[in-house]
Amino acid sequence: MAELGVRDAVAILCQGLAEAVHASPRSPSRACVRLGGASIEVEWSPVVAGEPAPEPPAEQPDEEPPGHVVRAELVGTFYRQPEPGAKPFVEVGDLVEANQQVAIVEAMKLMNPVLADVGGRVARILVGDAEGVEYDQPLIVIEPGTEPDAGA
């Protein structure tokens, strides 16, 4: 753990938790993430005899929205603005530059910037403000190639 920063270690543990929960058709009854000694624990309630097994979730088509998708780099809460009541970082139709901050994902009380990895026009915002997001979840769609002029 000494080689990883605390933030990186927490992100790795949270990613592991999200993957374990996502792989199961049932919701866990308990989840635990520890940092010291690096641990992740997930428990599911036992299925009662005679109780029908839960239906696996319907397969969602992995259909990507057209354009470039900005994804969550960690599990947390998505915020469109820097603080409550402030103007959102971006709105649909806004022009953004590569590496411009477009949102925040809060994880473990840390505010992590979400950066546009390409320049272009914001086509869609796929997540509502203050909604929970999973690792690699699509957040924002950008139409590349419509970057703002450097002199504007």
UniProtKB/TrEMBL annotation:
It holds the Pfam family Biotin_lipoyl. It comes from [Actinomadura] parvosata subsp. kistnae. Residues 67-143 form the Lipoyl-binding domain. Keywords: Biotin, Fatty acid biosynthesis, Fatty acid metabolism, Lipid biosynthesis, Lipid metabolism. GO terms for cellular component: acetyl-CoA carboxylase complex. This protein is a component of the acetyl coenzyme A carboxylase complex; first, biotin carboxylase catalyzes the carboxylation of the carrier protein and then the transcarboxylase transfers the carboxyl group to form malonyl-CoA. Pathway: Lipid metabolism; fatty acid biosynthesis. InterPro entries: AcCoA_biotinCC, Biotin_BS, Biotin_Carboxyl_Carrier/Decarb, Biotin_lipoyl, Single_hybrid_motif. One of its GO terms (molecular function) is acetyl-CoA carboxylase activity. The lineage of its organism: Bacteria, Bacillati, Actinomycetota, Actinomycetes, Streptosporangiales. This is Biotin carboxyl carrier protein of acetyl-CoA carboxylase. One of its GO terms (biological process) is fatty acid biosynthetic process.
